[in-house]
Backbone:
DNA sequence: GCGCCATGCGAACGTTCGTGCTATTTTGAG
DNA sequence: CTCAAAATAGCACGAACGTTCGCATGGCGC
């Protein structure tokens, strides 16, 4: 790994953390250069444009997300353990010190939701893949006889997503110390209702 | 209402819609002036600073939120009807043409969650009040014998909040046409589980 | 209908932004 | 050790930002 690549990684690391606090748009090349004691043009030279920097930040974050959230969970057996691992890792990801401003994908989703372009497209794909991963884990949980056979996997992913989003807002804006307790309660409720084993008749 | 106040309202109206798309930080006085065919200094004169403008935008949006979401719901009888009205009005608010970029409070919450200052404080209070309104409606639903007597009203508010946030993301970033169906399904599930009437034994 | 004061304009300020150039320094292969 | 190539610095640009100031002007109370 040449020196340039080392610098590039350093920049991306810092940029990712900065973007989690200030948003992808709040990222500025001058700020990055100042923080890392580089020249503005030195930083700029590693990326052809600010837009390219934003995209690479998203991809850099995705690699970490896959490595710390998805991959470990997929090493768990299908069913309850994998579902719970996805959830726990996700919660830990949003709280990690590595992202001082909270989940960068949540921040970016709000920021980019009506700003068409390649950056949005990148984020869209990341989020879509994540949804699919959750839904796929739900389908595997059905096969593993953990979830009810009539489970709507996409609906499960939707509800899981909402629960974690609620956690993110409650923790980060409202600073509610009960946020983690609440999110776990909500998830248990979702699991209880989706899983086999004593659950309501839930007609139709 | 003097001329100045009329202009001020026009500015705030446009600023609110702009902020819903670009964020409170993306708001720029020059952009506002251009759109409204005013001079930059003319716009600026109505507010002492950009920060004051941001705060007034939030308060302007809150008035609308109270008027179109909360007040009509509070005119419904306690219990199921009021709970459903809160939910329906909220969904409609997030979809309304009046907010072309989606709920401005959601956008602002992400943007401001780690940027201390008076703007964040204003939003914090708005969101806290909204949480309290939901929880209070849940308590009223308990009194009205719609919700189970052991209902945790704050937990209900948390879950309702998460469900709607999931809707917001699914609709706005993923553009999933099934978003509205999903959010209604999730809410029905929450209601079924919280309300009296055939519900699971839900031990402990 | 006079006169004042709210209202808005125009120009300018110092910064910061992203983005080009052209040098200069640093790196690593032969 | 040499020298081309890679990496970074330096400088400048045009544009946009929030903010300030002095000046015109027109709406409205008296």
Residues:
């Amino acid at each position: 790994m040449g020196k340039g690549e080392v610098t590039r990684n350093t920049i991306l690391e810092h940029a990712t953390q900065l973007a989690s606090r200030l948003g992808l748009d709040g990222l500025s090349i001058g700020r990055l250069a100042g923080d890392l004691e580089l020249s503005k043009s030195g930083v700029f030279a590693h990326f052809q444009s600010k837009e390219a920097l934003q995209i690479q930040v998203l991809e850099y974050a995705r690699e970490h997300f896959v490595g710390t959230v998805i991959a470990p969970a997929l090493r768990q057996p299908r069913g309850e353990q994998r579902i719970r691992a996805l959830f726990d890792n996700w919660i830990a990801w949003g709280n990690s010190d590595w992202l001082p401003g909270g989940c960068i994908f949540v921040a970016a989703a709000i920021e980019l939701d009506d700003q068409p372009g390649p950056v949005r497209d990148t984020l869209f794909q990341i989020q879509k893949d994540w949804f699919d991963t959750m839904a796929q884990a739900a389908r595997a949980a059905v096969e593993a006889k953990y979830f009810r056979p009539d489970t709507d996997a996409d609906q499960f992913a939707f509800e899981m997503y909402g629960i974690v989003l609620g956690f993110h807002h409650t923790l980060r804006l409202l600073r509610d110390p009960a946020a983690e307790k609440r999110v776990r309660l909500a998830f248990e409720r979702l699991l209880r209702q989706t899983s086999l084993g004593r659950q309501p008749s839930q007609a139709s």
Summary: Residues 2-4, 7, 38-43, 45-46 of chain B lie near DNA strand C (CB under 10 Å from a C1').
